């Protein structure tokens, strides 16, 4: 019964997803990214070395704030390096073909200007709450930058921001990735099951869901500083490990890489499709690539600016530059590595009727590394997804605190309980349904946030001109 209901809901969600991520939103995202890139003279590209230097300098000086700039970057990265980069890339391949990756890269290249802008605005308009915590994010730069008359839009952003934090970035997709990984390793044939909600589920899924829930609860109780400390440990170590393994695989398969790149470019423009279907193939690739790309690197969503708003730097320009590094690393290192690992394997989209990215990436790693690939994937999925869950919760809590000023600690405790409940529930829901739901929530946030950034473009440009004069 539950499966039938979820199936009907999934059809509705897919229809809404296709509408939200239609041509208008794609044009909006790309055009604002192009505009900001031109007006900022490609700052997000030309100043990469300076951004790296700012991280080092800030770690030495350590100004007043909740966390360091590096801690803020790691917190933001922990919310982006997860299923979106390892599993989400695979789902984009199935749904939009290899060409989706090209549009994912293009959206990221332009998205760095958007990411820079939103994190700059977050520092510029952040506030100190009554409890002494520093809070910044789209809700504040909409309210304070655009004016009190736009407070209703800030509230709407915060409402959907809670949804993205709890249902999208923070819980459903991440815990589903973890439990799927555990099941595939310990009980791939579902030989040990338990009957729940009218369906048989692997005991491995149930146990993994409960363990993750308990571990997350222990972390989120400690607040942002504990979340940041966890992110600063997990993210750098696991990211280096994953990238190193990806490099080894690609070096061993270097002769296949040119063919994979050609396949990506051809798919991006529908070159291999029949004449009548070329445009349609191109639009599907654009839709899935840009949508999954934004979920992977968060450029345009505004969520990462919440972490940046809590950093201990007073220089909005510096934090904006630092934030761009996250987009580059996530998209052009982690996502690209995952994509090429899959495309240089024996990948065949016809073997994956249900968009289950964990299986696609697992099969690719197994093809290259055998059982070692399986183990590596499961370790990375669990570590990355866990850090993403706790960071996603922080995003949700920050948005909730904006909606309800001076919110009672009792309600915050209630939010933590709801998060833990959703973690358990997310273990049992179809991955296709989850990804479509994430796309919708992300699309709504992107529309509001990009509109706000464009409305505040004078602030962004003026800060840049002042910065140039000081160089």
Tell me, what's the shape? Answer: globular
| Average pLDDT score | 77
Give the helix tally.
22
What is the helical fraction, as a range of percent? over 70%
The SS-based structural class is: mainly alpha
Give the strand line-up of the largest sheet: 1-2
Low-confidence sequence ranges: none
**Alpha-carbon distance between the termini?**
65 Å
Largest sheet: 2 strands, antiparallel
Short description:
The protein has helices at residues 2-20, 23-39, 43-46, 48-61, 69-80, 83-86, 88-96, 99-124, 138-145, 151-168, 172-186, 203-220, 223-252, 257-268, 278-297, 304-308, 316-343, 357-369, 371-403, 409-426, 431-455, 457-470; strands spanning 127-128, 134-135, 193-196, 199-202. With 471 residues, the protein is mainly α.
What does this structure look like?
The chain is built from 22 helices and four strands. It has helices at 2-20, 23-39, 43-46, 48-61, 69-80, 83-86, 88-96, 99-124, 138-145, 151-168, 172-186, 203-220, 223-252, 257-268, 278-297, 304-308, 316-343, 357-369, 371-403, 409-426, 431-455, 457-470, and strands at 127-128, 134-135, 193-196, 199-202. Strand 3 (193-196) and strand 4 form a beta hairpin. The N and C termini lie far apart (65 Å).
């Amino acid at each position: 019964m539950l499966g039938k209901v979820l199936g009907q809901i999934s059809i509705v969600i897919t229809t809404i997803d296709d509408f939200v991520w239609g041509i208008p939103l794609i044009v909006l995202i790309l055009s604002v990214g192009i505009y900001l890139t031109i007006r900022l003279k490609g700052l997000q590209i030309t100043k990469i070395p300076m951004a790296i230097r700012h991280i080092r300098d800030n770690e030495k000086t350590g100004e007043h704030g909740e966390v360091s700039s590096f801690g803020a970057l790691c917190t933001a990265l922990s919310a982006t390096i997860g299923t979106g980069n390892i599993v989400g890339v695979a789902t984009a391949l199935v749904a939009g073909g290899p060409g989706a990756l090209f549009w994912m890269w293009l959206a990221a290249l332009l998205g760095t200007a958007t990411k820079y802008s939103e994190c700059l605005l977050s520092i510029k308009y952040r506030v100190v709450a009554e409890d002494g915590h520093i809070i910044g994010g789209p809700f504040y730069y909409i309210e304070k930058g655009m004016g009190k008359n736009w407070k209703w839009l800030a509230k709407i952003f915060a409402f959907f921001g809670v949804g993205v934090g709890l249902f999208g970035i923070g819980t459903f997709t991440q815990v589903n990735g973890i439990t799927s990984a555990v099941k595939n390793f310990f009980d791939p044939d579902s030989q040990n099951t338990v009957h729940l909600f009218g369906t048989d589920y692997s005991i491995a899924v149930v146990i993994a869901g409960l363990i993750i829930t308990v571990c997350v609860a222990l972390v989120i109780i400690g607040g942002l500083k504990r979340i940041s400390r966890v992110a600063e440990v997990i993210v750098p170590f696991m990211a280096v490990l994953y990238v190193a393994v990806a490099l080894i695989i690609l070096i061993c398969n270097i002769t296949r890489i040119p063919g994979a790149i050609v396949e990506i470019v051809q798919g991006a423009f529908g070159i291999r499709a029949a004449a009548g279907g070329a445009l349609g193939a191109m639009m599907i690739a654009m839709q899935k690539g840009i949508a999954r790309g934004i979920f992977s690197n968060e450029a345009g969503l505004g969520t990462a600016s919440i972490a940046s708003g809590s950093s201990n730097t007073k220089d909005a320009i510096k934090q904006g530059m630092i934030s761009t590094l996250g987009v580059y690393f996530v998209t052009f290192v982690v996502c690209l590595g995952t994509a090429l690992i899959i495309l240089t394997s024996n990948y065949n989209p016809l073997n994956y009727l249900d968009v289950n990215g964990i299986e696609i990436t697992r099969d690719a790693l197994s093809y290259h590394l055998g059982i070692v690939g399986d183990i590596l994937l499961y370790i990375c999925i669990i570590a990355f997804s866990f850090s993403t869950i706790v960071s996603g919760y922080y995003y949700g809590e920050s948005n909730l605190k904006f909606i309800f000023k001076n919110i009672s600690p009792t309600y915050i405790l209630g939010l933590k309980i709801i998060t833990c409940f959703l973690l358990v529930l997310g273990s049992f829901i179809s991955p296709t349904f989850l990804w479509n739901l994430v796309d919708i929530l992300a699309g709504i946030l992107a529309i509001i946030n990009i509109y706000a950034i464009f409305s505040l473009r004078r602030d962004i440009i003026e800060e840049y001109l002042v910065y140039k004069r000081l160089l």
